[in-house]
Amino acid sequence: MSPKNGSNSAAAVLEPAPAKTGKRFSLRLEYDSSRTRSPWWSPILSVILALLLCAIFIAANGMSPVTVYEKMFRGAFGTSYGFTETMVKAIPLLLCGLGIAVAYRISVWNIGAEGQLTVGAMAATAVTIYFPDLPSFWSITLMLLFGTAAGALWGLMTAIPRTHFGVNELITSLMLNYVALLALDYVVFGPWKDPKGFNFPGSPMFTAAQSLPVLGTTRLHIGLIFGLVAVVIYYLMVKFTRWGYELRLIGANPTAARYAGIHIKRHIIIVMLISGGLAGIAGMAEVSGVTHKLMQGISPGYGYTAIIVAWLAKLNPLGLIITSVLFGGLIVGGYSVQTIGLPSSISEMLQGSILFFLIAGDMIHRFRIRRSA
Amino acid sequence: MDFTTQLLIAAISAGTPLLLATLGGILNERAGIIQLGAEGLMLMGAVTTCIVYIRSGNLLLALLAAIAVTAVLGMVHSFLCVTLRANQTMSGLAMTLFGSGLSAYLGKSISGLPLPGTSPKLNLSWLNGIPVIGDIFGRMDYLTWFSLLLVLVLHLLIHHTSWGLHLRAVGDSPATADVMGIRVQLIRYSYVTAGAALIGLAGADMVLAYAPTWNEGLTAGRGWIAVGLVIFARWNPLRALFCAYFFGALDSLGFRIQLLGSVVPSYFLKMIPYIVTILVLMYLGYRNRNKPSGTPESLGTPYVREQRF
Questions:
Q1: pTM of the model
Q2: Chain B within 8 Å of A59 (Cβ-Cβ)?
Q3: How many residue pairs bridge chain A and chain B with CB atoms within 8 Å of each other?
Q4: Does the first or last residue of chain A, that is N or C, have fewer Cβ atoms within 10 Å of its Cβ?
Q5: Low-confidence ranges of chain A (pLDDT < 50)
């Protein structure tokens, strides 16, 4: 086999062409490791293929996939109420997804956004409980600070075992999700339970001074601005600062980065602080802007959905905005199929299969079929 | 029965699904493929068992279905990771997300329905006379005995047969194995598929012996604990036995302490297994900081056969 097209990349043979007599041509799959940029259409194609795969399961359940998908789409984007709801769901996805993207850039696999979001929401609620009578500005600022700090601390608890003890951050961050959710259960059933809440597990309602401003009469709150500002800052930081340059260098080649004298451990800690902090802001925005109290299930898996949001966007800031709106729509659409008696877990199933097709598509693109004489 | 005996019985019962999933993970990772989809595979195994058992009433059929479904998912994982050389971390995460979504979707119709029966027990009544051993071993179910047998079989397979030598070679140095004429891709496919099926069986055991009805997300992170246990057990089946029972004991200890009238709220007791997983891994990392950890050396790196001229 000759080196292909004059490029000196290490094209490798997947299956060596068997030396068959009698056949003039044989097809051969060839792996081209230089093709690392996946095409722009691969996210779109993976969404379409995922819709087709899940259509099979929906049809097996005796429903028409077309009806179900139409219902989901109308529920999420068809009405102005649906659309603002989609945007409301997109806010935590954008913030968490951005945090995850920052960490994934240097191959730190944070899957703890769910827990980081939860502790952020708890810390913001703590402000309303321990400082109930602050004026609006100070109350919101303090909630934001506490939420970010709690999320960042939760991220740090993943980063330190990784950098100083060599523990896989996937396991740590996931274990901490369960710890955070149990802590949430404890406070909403225990010390922070609303005495006037008819025994319903949840904190007292926030006052108007503790709630984020909303747009007109909708539920869309100012957290959207937090998300967009964070995306812009992320873009500028990665593009134009030394820190961003080092981050890109580690992402491209960690070994070279280490030889260049870049302190990788420090970067891991920084990205986990940012990652956790952003998820913490998402948690603060959820309690202060949407639910106006702390309760069980404040996140329908935003932290996990954000993983796919980040990956589908190829860690690209503009892509993150698009994919978080899309997945916000998927969550809202998932709720709307409940009216025709289907479980909302359809949207989770779709999310998982989108990720499957996405990672497969990225790799299939690297193979080319060649015909050898 | 005294407290210790009860705790031992509970540890074995809670530890068996962990053990099966850890053994499955060991098979995967010995072949060099990371399996982070354990949580999703366990859920799929559990929901398949519940659906088939409730609909057909046949336990054996239910177990076979669980094995078949998760083996197919394992093949998907090996196709992505071995043939396409996709990111193994991402493929595992996709498996977990897809598994939890699909299991919730499929399980909706049978959610909360009781299973027709539990795992049948092997009645060794002649053991009943002996105080502690009789209580523990006298009425263990078939799946528990199977998991114990499997520990032995896998230990012998991995460390004392030529098949095991091939497996370890593929996990440590696929290039060398390839040169020696070992079929790297075939071995990776078979062990990843078999490992996934074992993890699925772990899910089946969870519903049969531990929580006899389907609830959404009933594994509650045990798949992930098993991923940690693989490291904790240093990819060794015999160690996996002790590690799984240790965590089984932790898991049930919280519940027992609560029964004894503890003042600590139950939420904190439920956190114990998760926090201990992190602490144990940190301790192991600290102790083995300058030593080989036992990780298969090519874990996580896809094998690319060099170009030949």
A1: 0.86
A2: no
A3: 163
A4: C
A5: 1-13, 20
Residues A95, A98, A102, A107, CA torsion sign: positive
Look at B91 and A359 and tell me if their CB atoms are within 8 Å.
yes
Cβ–Cβ below 8 Å for B105 and A345: yes
Per-residue pLDDT reduced to its tens digit, B212-256: 888 888 888 899 899 989 988 889 999 999 999 998 988 888 777
- Nearest Cα neighbor of A319 from A43, A37, A48 is A43
Please judge whether B227 and A190 are an interchain contact, meaning their C-beta atoms are less than 8 angstroms apart.
no
Q: A49 touching B, CB under 8 A?
A: no
Q: Do A185 and B267 touch (CB under 8 A)?
A: yes
By CB atoms closer than 10 A (0-12, 13-18, 19+), residue A105 is: buried
Q: Which of A12, A171, A347 sits opposite B224 (nearest CB)?
A: A171
Long-range Cβ pairs for the range B148-153 (8 Å, 24+): B148/B241, B150/B20, B150/B23, B150/B198, B150/B237, B151/B19, B151/B23, B151/B237, B151/B238, B151/B240, B151/B241
Interval A82-115: pLDDT, tens: 899 999 999 999 999 999 999 998 888 898 999 9
A1 touches chain B (CB under 8 A): yes
Task: Kindly provide the ipTM of the predicted complex, given to two decimals.
Answer: 0.85
Lowest mean pLDDT among A40-54, B41-55, B150-164, B185-199: A40-54
Inter-chain touch B97–A190, beta carbons under 8 Å: no
